[in-house]
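Need ABC-2 type transport system ATP-binding protein's 3D structure for a figure. Predict it.
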Amino acid sequence: MKQGNAIEVKNLTKKFKVFFDKGSQLKERILFRNRNRYEERWVLNGVSFEVKKGEAIGLIGHNGCGKSTTLKLLSKIIYPDTGSIEMKGRVSSLIELGAGFHPDMSGRENVYTNASIFGLSKKEIDLRFDDIVAFSELEEFIDNPVRTYSSGMYMRLAFSVAINVNAEILLIDEILAVGDSNFQAKCFNRLREIKAHGTTIVIVSHSLSQIEQICDRTIWLQDGLIAEEGVPRDIHPKYLNYMGEQRQVIAEKEAERQKEKVDDSKGTKISHETVEKEKIDKEKNRWGNGNARIREIVMLNSKMEEQHVFATGDDMILKLEYNVKENVKDAVFGIGIFRGDGLQCYGTNTRIDKQDEFDLSESGMLQLNLKNIGLLPAEYIVDIAIESEIGVPVDYFKVATSFEVYSNIDDVGVVRIAHEWNFSEVK
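Structure prediction for ABC-2 type transport system ATP-binding protein:
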């Protein structure tokens, strides 16, 4: 190994057999041999990286990209098909917490059993036992059988054992949401302390903010290879942009599927009835006198491309076409944006914005430009309404369309408010 390195991974490859319909019993496997067909799926296809002593790195990527597989290879739970892994120092893995726990044994007995799996002698466990129990905050339950523990208590004890092993290398897989918020903060503080003492840390997490708080470097895995690596603040925006594009592709496929569903309904009575039912259900969400009717709704990005997935801070364009049957005097157009749980996040209309009064006498099109949307990550629905002069409903359309917002922002609430912190000394 190179001097100063704790981990060296070279040309790592790993494939798995994915069976289409594998029999679970010997009889089934003999009688239905054709069912034992499988395909080989390459999860890692030549991954190489190095981690210096005391460095913390984060592994990110979409589900199935090989993050957890990489961590299991590092911890020697599984072995690579080709390539090599060199590690220097005692390793502690927070991958499957409590994997060595026995439900009928007490918490005390499980601490000794689990810690011995990590390579500690009885004398070492004796020295660390009080610290483990104190960190878990389970003093009054430590002699109770683990089967009587809640899932949170179980995870807290397992986490406490793993981080008190005093390992040189710590491997962590999606387990930083342990216990309540106070205990999570405690875990983060301990990880910072561990890192400050020179422990090498490798974290797999979908929470980019967790990685940014702890890690010096991010490795983005994609299609069995390293797509990007570098400082988290540089890599994460690229990753989020990619994931946003993928979600947009999924949204487009779903829209196409719904269109095909409508087209196919012309061929069969069953699907036709289904589509008609969906139309009726949708019509229940709108009401009004029908003098004007919203016909088509399209959501666009700043490049005028149809899109239903946006990042916090993006511009959004709502474009709609409407038909007019009878003149609508002093018309008012309005929108309401609601989070998926029904919480109203924003609403406005042309009267609130003091637009000049106008009548609807002919069919037309409306474009509403929403600048720098500060909504935090969630799914949102949009209501659209047309009223006449004295608030008479013309076309109230609930759940007219929907969109999704993503980002790596961890602010809480509904919207992101631009802000900065300034400190000064008081004399």
